[in-house]
Amino acid sequence: MSLSSPAGADVRTTRELIARYDAHAPRYTSYPTAAQFTPAVGAAEWGAWLSAAPLDRAVSLYLHIPFCKRLCWYCGCNTRAMNRVAPMSSYVDLLLKEADLVLARMGGLNGRRLRVGSIHLGGGTPNMLPPDELERLFAGLAARFDLGDCFEIAAELDPEVLTQDWIEAAGRIGLSRASLGVQDLSAVVQEAVNRPESFETIRWAAEALRAQGVTSLNLDLMYGLPLQAVENVVNTVAQVATLRPERIALFGYAHVPWMKPHQKLINEADLPGAEARFAQSQAAARYLVQKGWQAIGLDHFALPHDSMAAAARAGRLRRNFQGYTTDEAPVLIGLGASSISRTPLGFVQNHAQERDWRAAVEAGDLPVARGVALNPRDAFVGEIIERLMCDFAVDVADLARRHGRALAEVDAAWPRLLPFQLDGLAEVGGSVVTVTDLGRPFVRAVCAAFDPAAIDIEKRHARVV
User: Fold this and answer.
1) Which positions does UniProt annotate for S-adenosyl-L-methionine 2 binding (predicted)?
2) What is the reported pTM?
């Protein structure tokens, strides 16, 4: 195996690098990835894993709210347009019933309530829930779980449907972190993706949330959208930067109409090419770093005082299905349609179709559709990939020792890394793999060198750049 970078690496032009490495690759929010989940792992396995889950540390909760005011054409989430209260109210009922089903299968509680360290509301648009339903949901969670050590309650929000009443209700439940979907502030781009919103609306939302106790604000932006150009992206970044959000996420639009049919409403001829996407992402990143944000991993930025920036500096940054996170809980319990859960024994995903999820919960069954069991090798390879995604460097031999694995188990990765070394995207010294500054936009492709399944599931993922 190659354990040192070749001398005189030939650094190629940006165009050549994109042409060579802009393949389809997982986002590596887990390992194994969700594309490797199968129906062979279902409710029975999830019930057994819950009974064996470690309870010495608080767990994390994720609740998926699959409702939106409208369907944004770029969206890759599991959601649907909904403006009637009754289906949302019954959904809350079933979220709490699913929590009961989960708790009934957890052993070792001995009459104690399960401790929860963090709660994340995702979607969809969680602020589609009426304020009284939001408070009813959290009252139900507080009755079932021990929330005394809950250090963070977070929610993903659509500024266009955010109201003062909802924000006040969020303040009462203890919302501490909020993510506002912005994407792009150009009217032309917004029309092309069916996502109208003004900067004034976003500014009002940010100020109102802070007034109700939100201490960490994240704004979600996108590049690679139809009709988007560098000036659109930079103008958007410049405007939202004036709000000084603690975090900014800059995601590349993933055009996967074979998986998300509504994306066919986007005119593919309007989509920027790989070089244009690359230029957009790099221009935005330069602007944010110049204005004081710290670059975090592949696509996040945080002000130096934020907990995510501190975790990155300390080598404690993690990655899960919400992206980069500071959450180190070994158990994540997902509630709701399409939610993903994790224990040290494996991953499971609930039925993605809301009707299937509802039917299973109403029948008293854990609503699991698929999953994957973790073996010791998966844990070893998964940590290699996570450290590369988070730190851009990993000592493979050190991880092998800590996991009790043989370094030879990843022998196939070294020849796959050679092209990255030759092109100046990665360096290998001894057993330490380091992604260079030039290689950071291509880190997913570097990670795929350690993933034996990456080629087999290539077409099920978005492109690297």
Assistant:
1) 74-76, 124-125, 183, 195, 220, 254
2) 0.92
Does 290 show up as a binding residue in the annotation? no
Does 424 sit behind a cis peptide bond, omega within 30 degrees of 0 on the bond before it? no
Looking at every residue in the chain, the average pLDDT score rounds to: 92
293-300: Cβ within 8 A, 24+ apart: 293/248, 296/324, 297/324, 297/389, 297/390, 298/389, 298/440, 298/441, 298/443, 298/444, 299/249, 299/250, 299/251, 299/252, 299/323, 299/324, 300/247, 300/248, 300/249, 300/250, 300/324
* CB neighbour list of residue 277: distance below 8 Å, 6 or more residues apart: 223, 224, 252, 465
Q: Is 173 annotated as a binding residue?
A: no
Residue ranges of domains in the chain: 14-31+375-460, 34-373
**Does 447 show up as a binding residue in the annotation?**
no
108 assigned ligand-binding residue: no
CATH code of the domain made up of 14-31+375-460 = 1.10.10.920
Beta bridge pairs of residue 120: 62, 154
Least-confidence region, from 205-209, 230-234, 319-323, 346-350? 319-323
Does 123 appear as a known binding residue?
Answer: yes
pLDDT at 367 over 70: yes
Structure tokens that stand for 69 in this block: 């005011």
- Residue 150 assigned ligand-binding role: no
What is the tens place of the pLDDT at every residue in 251-300? 999 888 888 888 889 999 999 999 999 999 999 999 999 999 999 999 99
Say yes or no: domain 34-373 is CATH 3.30.160.620. Answer: no
